[in-house]
Design goal:
The complex is a heterodimer. By secondary structure, chain A is α/β, with parallel strands linked by helices. Chain A has helices at 2-25, 55-70, 84-92, 103-110, 119-129, 152-158, 188-195, 210-217, 231-235, 263-275, 278-289, 295-305, and strands at residues 46-50, 74-78, 98-102, 134-136, 146-151, 174-177, 200-203, 223-227, 238-240, 253-258. In chain A, the strands form three sheets. Chain A has a five-stranded mixed β-sheet. A three-stranded antiparallel β-sheet of chain A has the order 3-10-4, sandwiched between helices. In chain A, strands 1-2 form a two-stranded parallel sheet. In chain A, helix 2 packs across helix 10 (263-275), helix 2 (55-70) packs across helix 12 (295-305) and helix 4 (103-110) packs across helix 5. Chain A is globular, with a radius of gyration of 22 Å. The longest helix of chain B has 33 residues, at 23-55. Chain B is elongated, with a radius of gyration of 21 Å. Classes of the chains: A alpha/beta, B mainly alpha. Chain A binds chain B through residues 1, 4, 6-7, 10-19, 22, 26, 176, 178-180, 182-184, 200, 202-206, 210-211, 214-215, 218, 220-221, and chain B through 20, 59-60, 63-65, 67-73, 76, 79, 82-83, 86-88, 165-168, 174, 177-178, 180-182, 184, 245-246.
């Protein structure tokens, strides 16, 4: 009996030890429960700023928040709210006043039939599609959308900088992309119909993360679908292929604001998006993902550098 | 029920039945991964399990290690390994083998432990060598439990091989993950149905094999037979798991 119990305990200990190691390794540096515990209420002079459950979106929200605070506004941060189905009704009912969004996806949420393609067309269509009470401010140059990337060497060896150049490539093209890419209009069917390019799809389910990049750099795939805001593109010296036909729906960063945000406050938010370039957004994300800095620190450093915290 | 009808309609669509992304190809990949993983796990675990079972040593360590490895989240392990070895089947295969080893190992040593000590002593008394005791007494008598272990390992790998696709290795999980990520639940369910069907077929195959390979007179491990014959057969074989581990 004693030995049996002892063996049982050792098994449990082994299981617990390995399990705990894995669980601890998975812990992120920030605790999503540590902020935003007060209930959402948009009263008086306080502007409620929300963000998606996505680290990069929270950084952008924090940029708006600190820029507004520097100009004397009181803000209430309600970050990490999850899906559009949850937070858009809150915005429409006036419980949230400022929310960083992405042009293409937000447009599709309100108008599935929309056919706008270029960033300008999408932005214009979005202004039309938004319900009363919500306003889209000017979109930033920075975007967070799917993009096809190749290694610098592949680009130089084959003189390929655009999706249109791919049809002249003689070898086989394997595409590393999230599983859903195969079903998307910009996936293999779109590459074929828009650019005349045949690719074989290799699903890699890490959202265009390190494994996708590794597959690209070790030559397992030649093309990789990675979000334009990903710090991995710059870190690995990848070349993002141009999309001259606007096959991929643009997803420029765009602040959505309620009527409570007056024109002065709108100017403050606009001043942030006016400077937010694509490479800036990549660097901000890199500080979060690589250097593990908090969104508050990242936003403060960036706004200070751009002189947007000056009184 | 409509979802099920849609899923079966999806499976019947000729467009889904041919090519590299067709059901037969994916099913073949899935089955192949399962077989290779279980064979590798068996090659590693059966000799180790027999050694543990025959000598009675190292069981505590083996149980602690394999039990602990069982607690590893397989998806996490696959991504971690893939970052080292790249995309393709290598990383998931290692994870599947890690997953399959504990069941096979337990089947091997508990099969030996289940053999009544009196039987082993009798074998030794009639002059059998240690090698003969292993090959002529312990292996045949432990076979039902070993096959049971391999059977349960196979079932676990069949279910888990669906994650091979997250690192681009294909298999039936391709439909499940693609469906999941693009809200195409018909495709997801269709993939799941094929996995379930494969698991059921393998179960049937194993139950047949289990009956074929067990020597006449050995009844331990057959759930239907254990209760009624255990008393009479007690001199030859104990009811293994109860006597061996409690």
């Amino acid at each position: 009996m004693i030995t049996a119990n002892k063996k049982g305990r050792l098994t449990v200990l082994g299981a617990v030890a390995i399990g705990a190691m894995v669980a601890l390794a998975g812990c992120a540096s920030s605790d999503p429960l540590s902020s935003g515990d007060s209930s959402a209420s948009s009263d008086g002079d306080t502007l409620v700023i929300g963000s998606q459950q996505y680290y990069s979106n929270e950084i952008i929200a924090e940029l708006y928040a600190q820029a507004l605070e520097a100009k004397g506004y009181t803000v209430d941060r309600q970050y990490q709210i999850g899906q559009r189905e949850v937070y858009l009704p809150e915005l429409e009912s006036g419980k949230i006043d400022v929310f960083p969004e992405y042009t293409g996806n937000l447009l599709q949420y309100y108008d599935k039939e929309e056919t706008a393609k270029s960033p300008e067309e999408v932005e214009a269509a979005l202004a039309e599609a938004l319900p009363d009470g919500l306003t889209a401010l000017k979109a930033a140059e920075a975007s967070d959308q799917d993009s096809y990337n190749v290694t610098k060497q592949f680009s130089e060896d084959n003189d390929i900088t655009s999706l249109a150049d791919l049809k002249d490539y003689s070898g086989t093209l394997a595409l590393g992309a999230p599983p859903e890419n195969a079903e998307r209009p910009y996936g293999p069917p779109g590459l074929k119909s828009v650019y005349g390019v045949d690719v074989t799809s290799t699903p890699i389910d890490d959202g265009g993360g390190p494994l996708t990049v590794k597959a690209l750099t070790d030559g397992s795939v030649q093309l990789a679908d990675i979000y334009t805001a990903s710090p991995l593109i710059a870190e690995n010296d990848l070349v993002t292929l141009d999309d001259p036909e606007n096959m991929i729906l643009p997803q420029n960063v765009v602040p959505i604001v309620s009527d409570k945000v007056d024109s002065d406050a709108q100017d403050v938010i606009d001043s942030v998006d006016a400077v937010l370039s694509p490479s800036d957004l990549q660097q901000l994300n890199s500080k979060s993902q690589t250097d593990k800095e908090s969104s508050a620190t990242i936003a403060k450093d960036y706004l200070t550098e751009k002189g947007l915290l000056d009184q | 029920m409509n979802l099920f009808l849609d899923a079966f309609a999806w499976l019947g669509d000729p467009a889904h039945l041919s090519g590299v992304d067709g059901v037969p190809t994916r099913l073949g990949e899935h089955l192949w991964y399962t077989i290779v993983a279980v064979v590798i796990a068996s090659v590693l675990a059966i000799p180790a399990g027999y050694l543990i079972g025959h000598t009675g040593r190292g069981r505590t360590l083996a149980v602690a290690l394999t039990g602990g490895a069982r607690a590893l989240p397989t998806v996490g392990l696959v991504f971690l390994l893939a970052l080292l070895v790249g995309i393709g089947i290598t990383a998931p295969m290692i994870a599947f083998v890690v997953l399959a080893i504990p069941s096979v190992l337990a089947g091997a040593y508990s099969g030996f432990e289940a053999v009544d000590r009196k039987t082993v002593d009798a074998a030794r008394a009639v002059g059998m060598t240690e090698w003969q005791i292993v090959t002529k007494v312990e292996v045949p008598l432990g076979l039902p439990l070993l096959i049971g272990g391999i059977r349960s390992a196979t079932l676990q790998v069949v279910a888990t091989a669906t994650i091979a696709t997250v690192v681009g290795a294909g298999g039936l999980g391709t439909y499940i993950f693609r469906g999941l990520r693009s809200n195409d639940y018909t495709q997801m369910l269709a993939g799941s149905i094929v996995v379930i069907a494969l698991a059921v077929v393998l179960e049937v195959v194993f139950s047949i094999v289990q009956r074929l390979v067990v020597p006449a007179g050995v009844t331990a491990g057959r759930p239907s037979d254990t209760r009624s014959k255990a008393v009479r057969a007690g001199a030859v074989t104990a009811t293994p798991l109860t006597k061996g581990t409690q």
